[in-house]
Design goal:
2 copies of one chain form a homodimer. The first copy, chain A, is of the alpha/beta class and about 625 residues long. Chain A has 22 helices and 19 strands. In chain A, the strands form 4 sheets. In chain A, strands 8-7-9-10-12-11-17 form a 7-stranded mixed sheet, with helices on both faces. Chain A has a 5-stranded parallel sheet with strand order 1-2-3-5-4, with helices on both faces. In chain A, strands 14-16-15-18-19 form a 5-stranded mixed sheet, sandwiched between helices. In chain A, helix 6 packs parallel to helix 7. At the A-B interface, helix 7, helix 8, helix 12, helix 15 and helix 16 of A face helix 7, helix 8, helix 12, helix 15 and helix 16 of B.
Chain lengths: ~625, ~625
């Protein structure tokens, strides 16, 4: 254990305080008081000999990780790296300015940000994913997460706490900065650090109480305790003072997200005392260990051929995950306690070490997946399409963290059937489309499932993969090609009156409609729009040009769905786009009954086609 | 306390088991084993003299409430009301059929459903709202929530547990049916009921362990304990056997969501023994108490006039909530620990009893709001627009519960400024549009805020109300009219080349662009599209007909936003709809910098207008 240079650390803390105060005053913006409460906690961690990282190589595999779950304490976060010599004082004073990478809450524009935070209650899950990754890769790095006391009200934190205990993550260390005050007043437990200890200990963590979070010796002892090897994660619970160091706002309400005037700043800097701007905080070096990984080709198809039978796309997705897992050791699978439904249990059977049961706690599952992703893994996250709504905030935030997560949502649409509306993903396409740069794919058979999942795995970025419960006939040949942003024409003649656009199960309904209409001498073109985002603009425009109308049929609510996506890209042809979508409150029934009720089945397509061509 | 008629209760339990088994076998669908584990727990509650309700008046204010948070145990739920004489055996046998109100998970089509469940981890929050409502209305009814052990992994449950303890809800009784097995195998804690007790007790509940959840005496003692008046909510934690009563699947894995064949059913019915189909379970009557309520007019404007200064719409919303609160005692406000930002603290100052601090736990906040709504209250739920994504699953599920919740999302859009992307609601319109029958409103000044909030309060149904941080000049007069589904033309001439459609802050940018263009002799029409769902179809079609193009400008991501909503309704004119929306990753900066960067400011409008009119 390190020997503390108390005098130097005290100097470091004074400089951190001065930096925080000066930067937020310059910005006329920022969370000054929330930053000041954590100064000693973070200074001791980074510069007290505990934290180990190559600061010149932030992505190094064996660096300790530090996540500010209380992202609003970013002035402290940036000041730490300033004291470490990595951010100039000048840059610090440009906090929150448009061109500055020092944003209001940490983003990837700042090189030491492990994951963008600012929506509270997410850091511990992300850290948990990183800690699981260390176990998997046999790396000794530790993951530290700085938490605010207010954010402990978020259930996602308790999901992370319970799972971290379950996985015995003794390499995960949380630090709660219990500064008593939330944004609008006292938190639920105010300064009662025992209340946090009772709860967290009951969940199976070891805990350490710091009675004075501004006493460097106490803080140091806490980290010494945390680094002793046991089979439990550690939560350090520190009583601190919000706004510590400046009498103007120390421990006072109504100062959250407030800054000092220039004059007040002078008063505070005086209170802090002599500041040594030349001092540099030293961070220890980590062990030179690299994980052993094999990143093979994503060629599932050469290993597995589907038989000639009906498959649900959810089953095909499970099979494909297993096959892809054989080719690339970076793929890990997380499932929300539904692996026998999503078929991710096929992956589990083959690769138990790379399968993580996340139980019914989707927020933490997605947060942990982001943690894996940030450490170079390719997480496949499985649950019902509907239940990804549970983690929308985590999904939303992930887009700001340069993510690489594959979300496989099964049981989408009303074709789910008898289980009823609560289990039906009917707004999942709208949700994932609204996540920037998120690919949205919906296969219509086993072969397109496998081919598209390969593409998804090879693509760096978030991908949503929508699958369903119903077993469907195979439509494609092993040699057919699929790509992100592509589509496939299934029926084509030079007599086509209009184009029916399906995706997933509605492709099959469109094909049935084709037969009915063909028997009446009416020809329609059929497009399988398997890539909803990005979307095949060229093909859609060309079809709009060539046929009288585009009829989009989707097993999803109208809003934010496939038809709206199509209309958004066909420009002047948008008036030609018509839509059949789920528009009545669904209920329990068979898949066919529900497709019929919602008027997205073959009958409804036939009827609408005739209406559109005026027959 | 009631004296148990053990013999009768045993008969009731046998009938419940037979009903559950027969119904799920008939349906070839349904969660048989999850229903069987809770038979004694629920039979004792309802028919053991504890539960008090007028079964012929399910909406009676002082009925005890029963929520099946483990909604998949619906066969048990329906069987209970069958035994009570309210559902015929014939109807039971039509479980999960398309025309039957007995759906896969409870919905409002069944009269005894308090709220639709099926997405796990939501019932306790809903129940908490109902328990808070009882306190507010000084009604003695109790709220009982049946929970599964698997769903205790959901963080939302821990949010509810912590808040229920904070509010000392001794009228809230949870019952965990610890049957050891989740869907795919053992839960995290299997049969370790002590693990649940340790955690829940640490959070401040009183707990009662039932070692054998099939022993009627033990179950009865638990409810006796729960009904003793203390200052704490009670959790009954019962060790049960999944599939209890039938050796084929009792306590066995891989039987979740499985049913018996006809032949197996015969075996099981034999094991259960003699069944008395004539027995009727009796439910006790509640006290005849009605709450005192005043449901006045929603006329805030007659009481409050905005001064001539700039207001943010978030501030105007806070003021309006307070003024509306004066006219109607059914309005309650819930806030996620940001009341000094959302200005809901104005309501709190006036009506502390009807204000509920929900801390930073948005899932539970929305669930509780649904509970209030189901009991006749009009909950106004305040947090940042971005953080409603945290509760998307609860919002999604609420649509199936005949809800009446007003969601006020503040700090929407990039105009939020320096705090950065994590705090910006940029997918909130997409999310709320995808909720069926949810009204989506975005006011552009203080007066439209007040008038539209009045409309929102008077409208029965979910409403999303989008407000922002920037202070904006007042655009409207006190006499101007606003309505759900309406819009307002702000600039109109017979020389208008095209129509610019704004909503919220972009209305102001459009007005600036108007001045710039007017100076160059170019006239544009301007529409304030304050009602995004429902949308003013007639006006939009008419504008599309009258002007060359519709340019929609919005401070929201493209996907699922206002432009897509407009394109969806203007039919053949959809090709005329053009869009300016947030399309680059935002960051910290001033509101104006960000509006400019995203090309949704006046300059961008001017440029686009010129491009569209070919100048």
């Amino acid at each position: 254990m390190p020997v503390l240079d108390l005098q130097k650390l005290q100097k470091v803390c004074r400089l951190l305080r001065a930096d925080i105060l000066s930067a937020t005053t310059a910005a006329h913006s920022g969370h000054t008081t929330s930053s000041l409460s954590g100064v000693e906690l973070m200074a001791t961690l980074l510069f007290g000999g505990f934290f180990r990282a190559k600061l010149d190589e932030p992505s190094f595999s064996n660096n300790d990780r530090l996540i500010f779950s209380k992202g609003h304490a970013s002035p402290l976060f940036y000041a730490l790296y300033s004291v470490a010599g990595k951010v100039s004082e000048q840059e610090l004073m440009r906090l929150r300015q448009f061109e500055s990478p020092l944003e209001g809450h940490p983003t990837m524009r700042f090189p030491y940000t492990e994951a963008a935070t600012g929506s509270l209650g997410q850091g511990l899950s992300i850290g948990m994913g990183m800690a699981l990754n260390a176990k998997l890769d046999k790396l000794p790095y530790k993951t530290y997460v700085l938490l605010g006391d207010s954010e402990m009200a978020e259930g996602s934190n308790w999901e992370a706490i319970q799972l971290a205990a379950y996985y015995k993550l003794n390499n995960l260390i949380g630090i709660i900065d219990v500064n008593r005050l939330g944004q609008r007043g006292e938190t639920m437990y105010a300064h009662d650090i025992q209340a946090y200890e009772d709860r967290i200990r009951a969940f199976g963590w070891q805990t350490y109480l710091i009675r004075d979070g501004h006493d460097l010796n106490q803080v140091s002892s806490a980290f010494e305790f945390a680094l002793q090897q046991t089979a439990k994660p550690t939560m350090i619970i520190a009583k601190t003072i919000k706004g510590k160091g400046c009498s103007i706002f120390e421990n006072k309400e109504q100062w959250h997200s407030k800054q000092l005037s220039e004059e007040q700043l002078g008063v505070c800097l005086n209170e802090i005392g002599e500041i040594d701007h030349a001092i540099v905080g030293e961070v220890n070096q980590p062990e030179e260990i690299q994980p052993q990984i094999s990143t093979g080709f994503f060629d599932a198809q050469s290993r597995f051929q589907f038989e000639h039978k009906n498959y649900s796309t959810k089953e095909a997705a499970g099979i494909t995950a297993r096959e892809l897992g054989k080719t690339n050791s970076q793929i890990v699978v997380l499932d929300g306690e539904v692996s026998n439904s999503t078929h991710s249990d096929l992956f589990k059977a083959e690769f138990p070490d790379r399968f993580f049961e996340m139980f019914i706690a989707e927020q933490n599952m997605v947060g942990a997946a982001l943690g894996f992703s940030r450490r170079g893994k390719i997480p496949f996250v499985f649950t019902f399409a509907a239940f990804f709504t549970r983690a929308f905030d985590q999904i939303r935030m992930s887009q700001y963290s340069d993510p690489n997560i594959k979300f496989i949502g099964s049981y989408a649409g009303v074709s789910l059937g008898k289980d009823g509306t609560s289990q039906m993903g009917l707004e999942d396409i709208a949700m994932f489309r609204a996540v920037q740069n998120c690919v949205v794919l919906q296969p219509s058979d086993a072969i397109s499932t496998m081919k598209l999942m390969q593409q998804a795995a090879a693509h760096f970025g978030n991908v949503y993969f929508r699958t369903i419960r119903e077993a469907l006939p195979i439509l494609y040949d092993q040699d057919d090609q699929f790509k992100i942003g592509g589509s496939r024409i299934l029926k084509l003649s030079n007599r086509d009156r209009l184009t029916v656009i399906g995706s997933g199960i509605t492709v099959h309904e469109a094909l049935k409609a084709y037969e009915i209409l063909a028997a009446e001498g009416i020809k329609i073109r059929i497009l399988d729009l398997y890539s909803i985002q990005p979307i095949d603009v060229k093909m859609l425009v060309s079809l709009a040009f060539q046929t009288k109308a585009l009829l989009v049929v989707e097993d999803h609510y109208v809003q934010g769905g496939v038809a709206e996506a199509v209309r958004s890209v066909v420009g002047k042809h948008a008036g030609k786009v018509h839509s059949l979508a789920v528009h009545k409150m669904p209920r329990s029934g068979t898949a066919l009954e529900l497709l019929h009720y919602e008027e997205i089945d073959a009958d409804a397509i036939v009827k609408k086609v005739k209406e559109l061509i005026g027959q």
